[in-house]
Amino acid sequence: MAVLAADRVGFAYRRSAPVLTEVSVEVVPGRGVALVGESGAGKTTLLRLLLGLTRSTEGRILFDGSELNLGDRARMRAFRRGVQTVFQDPYSSLDPRQRVGRIVAEPLRSLGLLTGGGTARRTEAEARVAEALDAVGLPPDAARRYPHEFSGGQRQRVAIARAVVGHPRVLLADEPVSALDVSTRVRIVDLLAELRETRGLTVVMVSHDLAVVATLCARTAVLEKGRVVEQGDTGAVLGSPRHPYTRRLIDSVPRLPR
Ligand SMILES: Nc1ncnc2c1ncn2[C@@H]1O[C@H](COP(=O)(O)OP(=O)(O)OP(=O)(O)O)[C@@H](O)[C@H]1O
What is the pTM of this model? Predict the structure, then answer.
């Protein structure tokens, strides 16, 4: 069964024309989904709806088969334990005044994932932060440092550590590598692929980069002007696209001269 689904979702910003119309997308465990489409197609808006940050104006968002109710705090907490996020910009998404250890531990505290009290609680948080830092390939002493002491790629590792510290099932990522240089991009994509294998993490991703999509996501949904025009296995969608819009999207990818 789908962990997360958009069921005939529609959305319009206030006093504007709809930016999403009748969008249905399912996220099945172990089968990551890429959301692709031109700028303005509605990808980020759909991700925000799937994250429960914005309420849809039509249709429903389902988590483990039942409708997400943003007003139900206990249920939203369970949702946040299961579904975490990484944003595009590793510079603005980390609080510069907090040490990395505190940043990574934040979901453990806010989602009630720590069991003990006092010193035991602190020790448990430290151990789980160390485990998350190790999982993203950062040294243990990273916990004592501040975000500005790290490069862009390392900061994105910190953001990924914060997202996975509570062992979520799904990671929603909005252009997670587009702010990084090419070689760093490859390393972060490899890291996400590794987390997918080792932790069973299902990655749902918005990306302009079809090579990244092909590496990370089993399924692809193509959005054009707020509608899904094509979706299916990534190999089929990108390898033999049926819709002219998908073909145009693939043809618009710059190729190196031969
Ligand atoms: N806060 C907002 N208020 C009003 N309109 C908005 C708002 N945010 C986005 N939009 C509009 O909604 C549409 C979809 O935007 P969205 O950011 O979801 O697209 P996108 O596919 O993620 O684009 P990009 O690839 O450029 O990030 C666009 O026309 C955009 O101008």
Answer: 0.92
